[in-house]
Amino acid sequence: MTLGHFYQRDEVVQYADFIGDSFQLANAAKAKPEAEAIVFCGVHFMAETADIVSAPEQAVILPNLAAGCSMADMADSDSVEECWEQLTELYGTEPDASGRVPVIPVTYMNSSAELKAFCGRNGGIVCTSSNAETVLTWAFERGQRVLFFPDQHLGRNTAKAMGVPTSEMPLWNSRRPLGGQTPESLDAAKVILWNGFCSVHKRFTVAQIEKARAEYPEVRVIVHPECPMAIVDAADEFGSTDYITKAIAAAPDGSVFAIGTEINLVQRLAAEYPQHTIFCLDPVVCPCSTMYRIHPSYIAWVLEGLVAGEVRNQISVPAHIAEPARVAVERMLAARPDTTMAS
Length: 343
Fold this sequence. Notes:
Elements: E1 2-5, H1 10-13, E2 18-20, H2 22-31, E3 37-41, H3 44-53, E4 59-61, H4 77-91, E5 104-108, H5 113-121, E6 125-127, H6 132-142, E7 146-149, H7 152-161, E8 171-172, H8 183-187, E9 191-194, H9 206-215, E10 220-223, H10 229-234, E11 237-238, H11 241-250, E12 256-260, H12 263-272, E13 277-280, H13 296-307, H14 319-334
Parallel strand pairs: 1-2, 1-3, 3-4, 5-6, 5-7, 7-9, 8-9, 10-11, 10-12, 12-13
Helix pairs in contact: 2-3, 3-14, 5-14
């Protein structure tokens, strides 16, 4: 079975048996226990998650081991553990009168297996952009506050849409004591945000949205929640790649869309829905450079290996990491995304 992420180029996804966002691909990997091998056309953390949720006898293959994620690299296990120790010293571990613990860790799917395991060991959960609100609701039912890593923007935009004031979302800088915050600000916090971001979604600006509106007064601006808050606030809507895809599919003919996300998805949607005008907010092509490292020649190479009885570039998460990580990932898979539109 071959899985392809929405952000892959057309030359790659044409070979995929299933195309989706990270939440959908994790479910797809789990749903095909009969597949002997899963060729994952995505990036490293996605292939790790597929290995965590798939059957032990299945081989998960990443065609190019250099396909990583700069955002995932912004939160390492040692830094998160150090943060957790400081927060535990500040908050203690005793639950409040309603049984909620002081803090629940939530990691975005765009993180290493080690950080997913950290969440599994500490009562936490994984989220994707599809189910972030559902996951935060789950976390707030169990904790007084949330430590959200590595993407500050997804955490901030989602919590803000849920009514959490930005004043209660301090930014944790792992290079400074107490993350550069005061005990008072952390005590008042509802969501502690890690200082990470996506380099692609950070490119979008309010000026680009204003330009799109000037050129197309009827334009519908939809951006990904990995964009900074100012961009999300200026847009008409925000949502995951699956949300964006479904919004365009459901629109009346002749609609105009300005989309703030990775260019390969935007160009594919423009080709699939020629009855609409669909364009990327950023006039400069902005592909995910690490996702782009998956090339058809790499896919051919690993498939040739399978034909020859050789598993190439297998991703194997060690059992001591996979077991607690699976706890956090299974909690994520049980948290079904809300299908309503964000605005």
